[in-house]
Specification:
2 domains; elongated; 3-stranded antiparallel sheet; alpha+beta; 6 helices
Length: 175
Amino acid sequence: MVISIIKKNEKIFAIQTQSNNINIIDSFLYCEITNTLNVIIYNILRKALQNDSWILQIYQLSLSQQSKRFLLNTWCETINNDQIYLYLRHNYQHMYSKELHSLLQKELSNNFEKLIVVHIIKNNNCLKKTPIEYIYMLYKDKILQLSQELLKDPYIKLVQSLFNAKFDAKSIELI
C-alpha cells in the first residue's frame, strides 16, 4: 500500500492510499488546516503515517470507536498476506473479547477482500510501538520542540525580565 499526503492548499490536506497491485485510489481522508494546532497535528499525522501504515488501515475499517481504540493499542505483523498477528500490551487485555476477535477477523477479511486469519497475542515487547505509543512519542517530541522555540522568543524573554518570571516548560500541552 502506498500512502501519500497531499497538501491541496493552505487550508486542506488529504491522505491518499493506493494499493500496490492496482492503479485505483482506495481512499481519501480530508482534514482542514485552519489554525496552528491543526498544522501541528497535520505534521504529527504525516510522520506517523509515513512510518506506520497500520494507523491508516485501522481508520479505514468500519468498526466502532472502541474497536478502533483496541487496534490502536496493538502493533501489527502480516504473514503471507493472509495472516495478521496483532500484539496487544498486557495493560489493554481487558479490552479483548472473543466477539471482538471474530468481528476484527470479519472486518479485516472484508477490507482485504480475502479470508484473513487474525491472531491476537499479548506481548509487552517494548521495541515495537503501537500506533498510540508512536503518535504520543511524536506529540512529546513536538512539545519539546515548541518549548525550546518559546524559550528563544524575545517576547517571552521580555515578560520574564519585567516580572522576574520563570518559564515552566512542563506546563505546555496542545489543547
